[in-house]
Amino acid sequence: MSGDHSHNNSQIDSGSRHNDSHKHKDKYKDKEHKHKDHKKDKEREKSKYSNSEHRDSSDKKHRDKDKERLKLKDGSSDKQKDKHKEKKKEERSFDGKPKKEKENGFESPFIKSEPENDDFYNSPKHEKSLKRERDDDDDEFKPKKIKTEDDRNEKKVKKRKQGEEDVKPKKKTKDKKGEVATDGKKKAKKEPEEKWKWWEEERHADGVKWKFLEHKGPVFAPPYEPLPSNVKFFYDGKQMKLSSGAEEVATFFAKMLDHEYTTKDIFRKNFFKDWRKEMTSEEKSKITDLNKCNFSEMSEYFKAQSEARKAMTKEDKLKIKEENERILQEYGFCIMDNHKERIANFRIEPPGLFRGRGDHPKMGMLKRRIRPEDIIINCSKDSKHPKPPPGTKWKEVRHDNKVTWLVSWTENIQGSIKYIMLNPSSRIKGEKDWQKYETARRLKKCVERIRAQYREDWKSKEMRIRQRAVALYFIDKLALRAGNEKEEGETADTVGCCSLRVEHLSLHQEMDGQEYVVEFDFLGKDSIRYYNKVPVEKRVFKNLQLFMEDKEPEDDLFDRLNTSILNKHLQELMDGLTAKVFRTYNASITLQQQLNELTNSEDNVPAKILSYNRANRAVAILCNHQRAPPKTFEKSMQNLQTKIDAKKEQLADAKREMKSAKADAKIRRDEKSKKTVETKKKAVQRIEEQLMKLEVQATDREENKQIALGTSKLNYLDPRISVAWCKKFGIPIEKIYNKTQREKFAWAIDMAEKDFEF
DNA sequence: ATTTGTACTTAGTAGAACCGGT
DNA sequence: ACCGGTTCTACTAAGTACAAAT
């Protein structure tokens, strides 16, 4: 399994951001036109290949297939088959019957919540009274009381159901940022203590996301403030006063003047087109060429402004901070089912120029200002509805408890819907996250069967099945994304597994001493380059040759497959299985294995953390989570090296001192000199430790140059693995998770014991 | 069967916040 | 207090998935 995950570091080493790679840009740009007919191509291919499936024997292609099959029919493949049969049997037996392990209720279809709970959730009376004072102190009785997650003084939430080990000594959670808890270990347990443990409660019935929801609506972007009159705009060398509408859009461009975006043709073209729409007819007739526009005064003005902001007095900064805090308190929370929950993004996205990633055809377009009239509010019927700003109206107020969002609007660039939703620490996100990992753990139980199945399918008579099987192999082995098809010309040209094109792979019968190497080179999500050379099974290789036969580079590799076909198939293999579950599963299982492999219980804490980071890194490489090397990377490495050198000096000095102290003690043989020796010894040890720490840090940083650990940590790694590891090796959880992360993973920190296994 | 619409997760980055050293 | 950097957070784009409409 993860033995499969032999990742070539070349994936990272030679991978570069698309943006930086002109070679790439050109390569893909050239395709643009041809690619336009992609849909048609697909049709063509389809008829071509669908026939071939049936006129078996006459088809040359098929003869090859047969040949191949014969060749492969040797002992090993038979064994393979038998093994497969066995597996299948064994799997079926456990698959068919109800799971014994009740995985926190996430096992298969959601289970109904029991009536008692339903009842109280349903009672609007209670909810109505939420806002009013808590006259009852019987908070054992289902809450009228709103549990505020951040209210540390609040009485502890009583458990409703399971888990009786409750009541632990109440301790202030201490999560000041830098805090270096050296004892750690048990901290993990204490942390979420006074907070609501939603994970110990029943979940809502199927599809129902909440019973009560109240919030204050979104915070709108501040209105446009016209430029002071001394900041001028010049067109063709002549000063020109812009109308407020045109000026605002101009400032968006001016603010980005230093960004490379503004040098890109598409960006400029799109911007100019949209800018002109905001101009008065007079302006429109005058301003006809972006190259003749001079925004530099505006640009300077904004730079000065930001300098001024930095230079503000402490008091002023504090004032701003307080104001932000006030807004946060007022708009940053909602009440969902008796609990005050943090909202993730309560501010409406301000207008500006669209910054698409990679070669985005819409970059530079104007993202228009969102007004109350664009906003749909979602809340409980019986809640206090948020009110629109004076003199305005919401587009709609609805009461849909089958969805989790509080506010939505339609964005004008792609016409997609944007949402305001809750923070990852919220129950509604946490439950889903937990469930995601439970699904992945269920996959763990049947992944061998599924693997056997797709390997078998490589031999299928049907092209669509072979394609499906090879695609699934990639998804499993390489943790590729599913690869939904995208609308041509609406987005950057990126692909995932199902949307790979012939041009994205090259096949090497033999390369670097390995057989059957597939070289992948494509742009994935966010136009991050995926580059990898992978030796594959011969059968996969032959299949790929077959899929690529008679196709143009811009044709789909898997012309008989798309994500919905694939997912439909996966659904049949396991309830809840989709392509992305493989990513989650492989990421988490890799972390667990790597931790087992790399952690050395003899090591000190920093060394163990290095091991952890390395395990994390293995996952990040698997998932191709890259980052631009920090601009300051070289320098910071150098600094660190300087520090290390200095520390080495210091160590040498300390050692020398120790020696002389020893010599001294040998002669004098008195208590005092003995003590000195001890002190010096201690000093040496301390310095050695510091040096070690620095060296570990250097290694860690170097290895992390262009790898981003955050994404996998946040989205792919079952937090219980990390929590268990921390508990097992006495590592304080805050060494692994910062405050936000601890909030998001509170459920895992609370429930995972040191023996947790993914 | 395909397309469209919706909801929700996953992603990298810019800039704010913070920190340790001077 | 400031400097030079690192870490954290907010932001929002770009994916996946699935259901409804065509």
From TrEMBL:
Q: Which residues form the active site?
A: 716
PROSITE patterns, alphabetized? TOPO_IB_1, TOPO_IB_2
GO molecular function terms attached to this record? DNA binding; DNA topoisomerase type I (single strand cut, ATP-independent) activity
Chief subcellular site?
Answer: nucleus
Q: Name one GO biological process term.
A: DNA topological change
Per UniProt, the keywords (alphabetical) are: Biological rhythms, DNA-binding, Isomerase, Nucleus, Topoisomerase
User: What's one GO-annotated cellular component?
Assistant: chromosome
Q: Which reaction does it catalyse?
A: ATP-independent breakage of single-stranded DNA, followed by passage and rejoining
Localization of this protein: Nucleus
Q: Which domain of life is it from?
A: Eukaryota
- UniProt-listed Enzyme Commission number(s): 5.6.2.1
> Could you say which enzyme class this protein belongs to?
isomerase
Q: Which family does it belong to?
A: Belongs to the type IB topoisomerase family.
User: Its biological function?
Assistant: Releases the supercoiling and torsional tension of DNA introduced during the DNA replication and transcription by transiently cleaving and rejoining one strand of the DNA duplex. Introduces a single-strand break via transesterification at the specific target site 5'-[CT]CCTTp site in duplex DNA. The scissile phosphodiester is attacked by the catalytic tyrosine of the enzyme, resulting in the formation of a DNA-(3'-phosphotyrosyl)-enzyme intermediate and the expulsion of a 5'-OH DNA strand. The free DNA strand then undergoes passage around the unbroken strand thus removing DNA supercoils.
Which PANTHER family does this chain map to?
DNA TOPOISOMERASE 1 (PTHR10290:SF5), DNA TOPOISOMERASE I (PTHR10290)
**The name this protein goes by in its record:** DNA topoisomerase I
